[in-house]
Amino acid sequence: MRTVAALVVFLSLGLPAAQAADPHAGHQAPAPAAGASMTALSEGTVKKVDKANGKLTISHGPLVNLQMSAMTMSFKVKDPAWLDSLKPGDQIHFLAEDVHGALTVTQLHRK
């Protein structure tokens, strides 16, 4: 009788019986934001090239894959050779990703 009462309570809450039986059911990683593309390139303008630290400062539009607003910030770069061909004022398309806790430009193309 107790099991039936518990099942009635869970069903009245709108939970499937499988979730009611398993306390970990339904625990999953959050889905990406609607319309977010994990490979969407963002647009930006190079503000500073820091070869010594392997970083680019970029004024950029929204970073959809990271759910970040437009701003100016510094990023590590996947390929330090990119720093040799860029200068402040260059217009770029890029992909920034969280690589081991550091925001890193992993793809880069000049406009």
Automatic annotation (TrEMBL):
Which keywords are on file for this protein?
Signal
The organism's superkingdom is given as Bacteria
Residues making up the signal peptide according to the UniProt record? 1-20
Xref: InterPro entries: CusF_Ec, CusF_sf
> What is the official name of this protein in its record?
Cu/Ag efflux protein CusF
